[in-house]
Amino acid sequence: MIKAVIVDDEEHWCEMLTALIKEHWSDIQIASVTHSATEALQAIEVYEPQLLFLDIEMPDMNGFQLLDKVKPLCFELILMAYDDHNAVNTINSGAIAYLLKPFGPIEVKKAVEKARQQIETKFSREQLDSILQKVHQKLHAIEKVALPTIEGLQMVAVSSIIYCTSNSNYTNFVLKDHQKLQVCRTLKEAENILEGHPFIRVHHSYIVNLNEVKKYIKGEGGILIMSDNTNINVSRSYKEMLLKKLQPGKH
Asked: Who has the most CB within 10 Å: 94, 95, 106, 210?
């Protein structure tokens, strides 16, 4: 199921897109319809859509300003406007299609089908990448993981990762060489990528490398001091599992 978010300050365009999608595409779920860029930012963070319909001309914040706040883009983008003077910016934004208002069903169908093909191709490629990564790890004991970034897959040594932190619709991987790598995956998906390696979830926003923990400070949940001296709070719900990993013989 493809999750879509529609953003337009004019209600009739939202209603038209909603009706067309429900009529023609059973595999597209409209997760949210919003009428301002501010509301859209919240919807993108909550629903993590694969497809975004975005009006460029809105009063509080235009579409391009919104996109600057959610980069890297982890969704296919269909832009909408009353004129075509934004053509260059549209190309630079990475949009899959541009709907010139007033548009009709034919234009919408072409744009959506193009987006669906891109999403399906990306999903198939990600599935294959995931399968190959797991096979390679098992057969060859590879100590690297393939992390999907906006530029493509980046191979990173597992031992170089200190911790991961959630950041909107992507995850920051903090590495030993002071790099911070932005990965187009949620923290839950990052947890799946690191499965089988010495990582553990200690908070709804953090995964840590157990080999990089310098100290655990007692408390309701506690605090971890990592090898780069970062302090990470431990949620009470994760405390017991963490202590079992840190002191396996005492539990």
From this structure: 95
Note the pTM of the prediction, 2 decimals: 0.51
Q: Report whether pLDDT(244) > 50.
A: yes
Reported CATH class of domain 2-124: alpha beta
Q: In the chain, what are the domain boundaries? A: 2-124, 143-250
- Nearest 5°: the CA angle 146, 125, 116 is 135
* Residue 175 main-chain phi, psi, to 5 deg: -110, 165
Q: Tell me if the domain spanning 143-250 has CATH number 1.10.1060.10.
A: no
- Taking CB atoms within 8 Å and a gap of at least 24, the contacts of 14-20 are 16/108, 17/53, 17/108, 20/105, 20/108, 20/109
d(C-alpha 125, C-alpha 147), whole Å: 13
CA distances from 231 to 23, 35, 37, 168 (A): 51, 39, 34, 21
